[in-house]
Amino acid sequence: MWRIIVACLSLLASGPSQAQEVIRLARIADIPDQYVGGEMLRAVYARLNIKLEFEDVPGKRALALSSAGAVDGEIQRIGTLSRDYPTLVQVTPAINYIEPAVFATKLRFDVAGWDSIRDYSIGIVRGVGSSEAGTRGMARVTATTGLDNMVRMLDADRFDVMVTDLFSGLAAVRKLNLQARIHPLSPPLERIHIYHYLHERHRDLVPEVGKVIAQMEASGELAALREALVKQVLNAP
């Protein structure tokens, strides 16, 4: 979907030519922040001479595959994932962050945390842990099959507001040419650091990947790459 060539990635893999190990990660389909996180990880793994491949599936399916070991892990998920899926091992430090935000058509109000949307009907994407956790216990929550579907449902007034990360929501609204109809409310609900996860059979790889993430974070490379990827997705034709 987002066919972006990240020129710097080819420069990151150094060393003698040899057969690369391949790691396959579950990627939630059609979620822009998952694309960005995946490309950030591609740069990380290139430092280890490991090639990444992605399995694009719905959110719940992704967790079923990764926790069962059918794929090697998850690109990025909230920090509490291992509590519910103990076969998935968290890689630290965080690889990325998301800012869950409220989008609406008619409503305009200042967002003051998750409780400020409790009385509205809310759309979320099924399998997105931050949205499921933030709206848990709320009376009128509709779990949709995907981001584009949710945006279309909001446009059709199927619920009052939708919740998704700010970047992904802006990208999806732009993609569907609904900027004049759907707008984000401010400020975002929160900022959540999200983590890469590997299946427990790759436990020995976890500290190696974490070390590279920490190095790229300290040098500013990770933040610069994220910024470039976000801009390219939002400016894509």
Question: Helices and strands in order, then pairings?
Answer:
Blueprint: H1 9-12, E1 21-28, H2 32-46, E2 50-57, H3 59-68, E3 73-78, H4 81-84, E4 88-98, E5 100-104, E6 122-125, H5 129-134, E7 141-144, H6 147-155, E8 161-165, H7 166-175, E9 183-184, E10 192-199, H8 206-219, H9 221-235
Parallel strand pairs: 1-2, 1-3, 6-7, 6-8
Antiparallel strand pairs: 3-10, 4-10, 5-8, 5-9
Helix pairs in contact: 2-9
Protein name: ABC-type amino acid transport substrate-binding protein
Keywords: Signal
Organism: Bradyrhizobium shewense
Summarize the structure.
This is ABC-type amino acid transport substrate-binding protein. By secondary structure, the protein is of the alpha/beta class.
Structure, explained:
It comes from Bradyrhizobium shewense. This is ABC-type amino acid transport substrate-binding protein. Residues 1-19 form the signal peptide. Keywords: Signal. The protein has 237 residues and is an alpha/beta fold. The chain has two domains: 22-97 and 194-235, D-Maltodextrin-Binding Protein, domain 2 (3-Layer(aba) Sandwich), CATH 3.40.190; 100-185, 3-Layer(aba) Sandwich (D-Maltodextrin-Binding Protein, domain 2), CATH 3.40.190. The protein has helices at residues 9-12, 32-46, 59-68, 81-84, 129-134, 147-155, 166-175, 206-219, 221-235; strands at 21-28, 50-57, 73-78, 88-98, 100-104, 122-125, 141-144, 161-165, 183-184, 192-199. It has a five-stranded mixed sheet, sandwiched between helices. Strands 7-6-8-5-9 form a five-stranded mixed sheet. The longest helix is centred in the N-terminal third of the chain and has 15 residues, at 32-46. The protein is globular. Mean pLDDT is 92; it is low at 1-17.
